[in-house]
Hints:
This protein is an alpha/beta fold. Helices cover 15% and strands 36% of the residues. It has helices at residues 12-60, 66-76; strands spanning 86-92, 109-119, 130-142, 145-148, 155-157, 166-168, 173-177, 181-183, 191-194, 200-201, 205-207, 213-215, 227-228, 250-252, 262-263, 266-271, 274-276, 281-285, 287-293, 296-298, 303-307, 317-320, 328-331, 338-353, 362-373, 377-381, 389-392, 395-398. The strands form 4 sheets. The protein has a 19-stranded parallel sheet that branches. Strands 1-2-3-28 form a 4-stranded antiparallel sheet, with helices on one face. α1 (12-60) packs antiparallel against α2.
Amino acid sequence: MKPIFFPTERGQALIIISLAAIGLFAIVGLAIDGSAKFSDRRHAQNAADTAVLAGALANVNGDAQWKLVALDRALSNGYNNNLVSNTVTVYACNENGSNCGPYAGKQNVVKVVITSDINTYFARVIGIDQTHNAVEAIAMSQESYIGELYGGASIIGLAPDQCETIYFSGDAEPDITGGGVYSNSNRDCGVRIQGSTEITMDGSISMVANGYTKHGNPPLGEIAGGIHGGAEPYQYPPPDEMFPTYTCDWTYSSFPPNGVTNLSPGTYCVNGDFEMNAHDTLNGTGVTIVMQSGGIRWNGGATINLSAPTTGDLAGMLIYAPMGNDEEMNFNGNGSSTLTGTVFMPAADIEWNGTGNLAPSHVQIIAYTIELTGENNTSVIYQDAENWDVNIPAQVGLMQ
């Protein structure tokens, strides 16, 4: 028997297939055209980031054509500002219409906006001929400057995640004038005050952590600026531009040389220990001592009078240990000892012992950790003019 077909059923499959095809094209369009939109957005954001950094750097360096620099960088990444397929707009955040949010009104902040149109392929079937992206990037610049290390604090412990980054121990009576104490540790044990330590300072103790520890009942009423947590952390290791460059005038495997009690002005590089025994004397004006390796061991009976250069690239730098030297540094001296200049040892642990009344006149002490200990007064007086200043080059950074 032949099958029977009813006229009203003819063509139904074609309609179903047509409807299914539209859905299929929509799905393919979502996958392929959506991927194209996502890829362009990522590329546009990278282009905006590089353009805004180039423009901000040119701006801070005084280039009057800094906007053109940003446009050229966007062009090199495929966004030619033809006003048809893409638009690139460059602002200073103190310009009208910049819409820089919290950075509004700041001349040293630059914003780049890139908008782009992406033609679709499969999505045209459902009436979408183009998709659109809009991205932006904001960069802040800072001019080059010469300034104090670590904001002019007198004593700086750089260890970022360690107990006793700053440690006042024993019966020490540190008297700190001209700058405060800073701990880079994010732990509440980063600052520790123990025993009958009596601290006198005209500044404050600042720390990244929100708390500190103390043992016993040390009197803390003579800290004029108080003790404060929540400080902004410093980068560790320090950035390269913070390290001094130097040329060795003399190099020794141990220091000082036998029989030498007076140092000529210059840079002394030490590849061994710097030892001063009881009754030893060492004097030097205009000297920088670079501890390339080895530690410092000064006996409390030694008399040490050293001052840094006052001119040149190392002006104010008294004793420096590069990042590769993490030896212990023990400073002791008698009541006649004086040090003038910066002691910068970012990877080393320093013990600054007041037993012999080591009394530096003008000094800034920077190390991985610092312990102030002993039984007598240790006076630390900081004055920027007699310590080392760092030359920070112009810098830019993405803010969003």
